[in-house]
Amino acid sequence: MAITLDTPLDQFPGVGEARAKKLEKLGLTRCAQLLTYFPRDYEDRREIYSIRSAPLGRKVCVRAMAAEHPRLARIRRGLELVQLRVVDQAGALHLTFFNQSYVERALRAGEEYIFFGMVEEHGSRRAMVNPIFEPADRRNTTGRIIPVYPLTAGISNHLMLSLTQRAVEACAGSAQETLPPSIRLEHGLAQAEFAYRNIHFPDTFQALELARQRLTFEELFYLSAGLTMLKTRRGGGSGQAVPSRPQNDFLALLPFPPTGAQLRVMEEIAGDMASGRPMNRLVQGDVGSGKTVVAAFAAWLAAGAGCQTALMAPTEVLAEQHWRSLSALLRPAGIWVGLLTGGLTQKEKRETRKALAAGEIDLIIGTHALISPQVEFRRLALIVADEQHRFGVAQRAALAGKSEQGGMPPPHVLVMSATPIPRTLALIIYGDLDVSIIDQLPPGRTPVETYVVHEDKRQRMYNFVRRLVGEGRQAYIICPAVEEKAEDGGQGGQWAQAEARPDLKAVTTYAETLRTQVFPDLRVAFLHGKMRPREKEAVMSSFAAGEIDVLVSTTVVEVGVDVPNAALIVVENAECFGLSQLHQLRGRVGRGKHQSYCVLITNTRSPDSLARLRTLASTTDGFRIAEEDLKLRGPGDFFGSRQHGLPQLALADLSGDLRLLQEAQAAARSLLQSDPGLTRPENRPVLERVRRLFADTPDIFN
Ligand code: ADP
Ligand code: MG
Is-above-0.70 flag for pTM? Predict the structure, then answer.
C-alpha cells in the first residue's frame, strides 16, 4: 500500500481498530499527524561497546554473543527469571530478564546480538538487567539515535517508532514547505523535509538541532503572525480620549496612601486613556500588591468622562467582593457600581441590564455573564479583566466588540494578572499588550511563613489550627476535590487525578470529619465551585465577617479573595497543585497585620515533588516561582488546560528560546507589514497555517 499524508492510521501495518482508538487519544488519526508528533526525548544508541569498555551508570549498546542457552526459572507465582551469559573476545556479561519468558526462545546460543541497557559491576563481574536486544546483523533500534515519544497505555515506543519511520520515509518529501523561502534563507533555517526527517531520526545531534530550530521557529512564527493579525483587527486606530483628572481627587477617596508602584501604574494608565488610541495594557503584580485600587482609578477616570466600565472577574465570589469594596470606595465620588452575576434573580438581572443600557450604571462588575449578547452598554469605554489568565484571548475580543454596539470607538482594555509570567511567555501571550508591573507591596506586611509537612504530622497541623483560632485568627483548608466521585465540575485536570486517587481529600466529606471529629468546638464551613452562587456568597461573607473559624474549600478561593484576619492556609495533597497555583493560594493570607502561615501537607516521598514544594517554602518571589513552574511543567500546562485560549505549542521550550522567539516575532511582523492580510499567492500557505493554528480560537479570522 502506498502511504500518503492522508492515509488513516488504521491502514498502517500493526494498527488494528483497538490501537487506532488509542492513537486517536494521542491526537493521531492520519499519517500527516505523525510527522508533527515530535519526540519528547532521544536516546543515543550510536556507540557500540565491547563488554569491558562499556561505561557504567548509563544505558549503552554492547555487542556480544550468547554463550549458552537462556535458563528460565519460576521463582514464585508472578516472578519469572531468564538468565544467561554473553561473551566477547575479552569479557563476559551476565544478563537477567524479569518476567520476559519469551527471551528464552528469542536468544540463541552462538548468535551475536546488540544489548542495550545499563551495565553494572559487582566486583569483577559485569551484569545487565532487562536489556533491549536485537541481532547484530539486523539492527534497527540500536547503533543510532532513537526518538522517545509521548505515549499512552497500549501504545509502546516501539510501535510509535515504526509508525513514524514509515511516515517519514513515505511522506517527509511531500510535506508542504509553508515558510516563505526568503524568511527561511534570511534566518538560516533548514527545509521542511530535512526538519521532519531529522526531528524523528537524526543522524547526529547537530542535525537534530537544525531540525529543532527550524520547527520551533515556524511554530513561533505562525503564532506571532496570528497574534499580530489579532492585534491589528482589534484596531490600532482611534479610541476614546478620556481626559485626565487631578489624581489627588482620587487619592482622597483611599483609606491609605498608595505605594510608589501603584502611583506609577496609575500614571501610565492615565496617559494611555488620554492618548486617543485604545489602551491595551497588562498590569502584573504579585498577590496582595494592590491591583484593585489601580483598576478603581481607571474606572474613576472613565466615569469622570461620562463613560462606562466593565470589570470581569474569574469567579462570582470575587466579583461580589470587588463589588462590595469598589462600591464603598467609589460611591462617595458619585459613581454607581452594579453587579451582574448568575446568582441574581431574573428580575434583578433584568433591572441591572436596563440600568446599564440606559447608562445609569458607571461601573459594572461580573463574570463571563458580561459578554452575553443580552448585555448592552450605553457608553462602554473601559474593560478591566481581573486575573486575566482565566479569560481567553477570544473572550477579550468578544468584550471588545461590545462598545461597537453604541457606535463607540474600541474600548480601552486593562488586564490584571497576579500570576507573574516569565518574560518569554508574556511576550507570547501578551504580545499585543503593553506591560506595567507593580513591584512593591503595601508597607507593613510580614512574609508568610511556609512549611512542607508530611501526612503523618497531621495531628500537629490540627493543633496549630486550634492555637491560631484560639488567638482569634481564621484558617483556610484547601482540598483538591469537591466530593468523592462527583461528575466533572469544571475543575479540569484536577478531577482526572481525583478519580484516580481515592486518597485525595474531598471538600464536603473532609469538612464533615473536621466539624464532627477534629474541631467539634470550632465553627467549620465549606465552599466549592459547585455550590449555588447565593450559598457561596453567604459562606464567603460570613467568613469575611469572622463568623467562621475554619473554611474548607477548593481552589475557588485561589484568586483575589481578601480576608485580612485569615492567618493560616493549609493545603491538602499539595503535590497535586502547580507551584504558581500554590503561590496564589498562599496569597490568601498575609493580608493583615498578623504573622501568617502556609502549611503544605503531602504524602509524597518523591524527592522531585518535595524539592518542588520546598521552592515555595524558600521564596515568596512570584516571578522565581513562575520560572520554576515553567521549567518543571512546560508552557502548555502553565495556565491549566488551554485556558489562555492560545494554541498549544508542541516544540518551543519557552524557558530557553527567547532569541528564537524574538526572531520569529520580527519575521512575522515584517511579513505582515508588507502583506497585512497575507493575501499574496506566495503567502497563502502561511495564512492557511495560521488559520489552522488558531482554529480553536473563534472570532479571530472571520
Ligand atoms: P491584589 O493585587 O492581590 O488584587 P488587592 O487589590 O486585593 O491585591 O489588595 C490587597 C490588600 O491590600 C487589600 O486589603 C487592599 O485594601 C490593601 N492595599 C492596597 N493598596 C494598599 C496600600 N497602598 N496601602 C495599604 N494597603 C493597601
Ligand atoms: Mg486582586
Answer: no
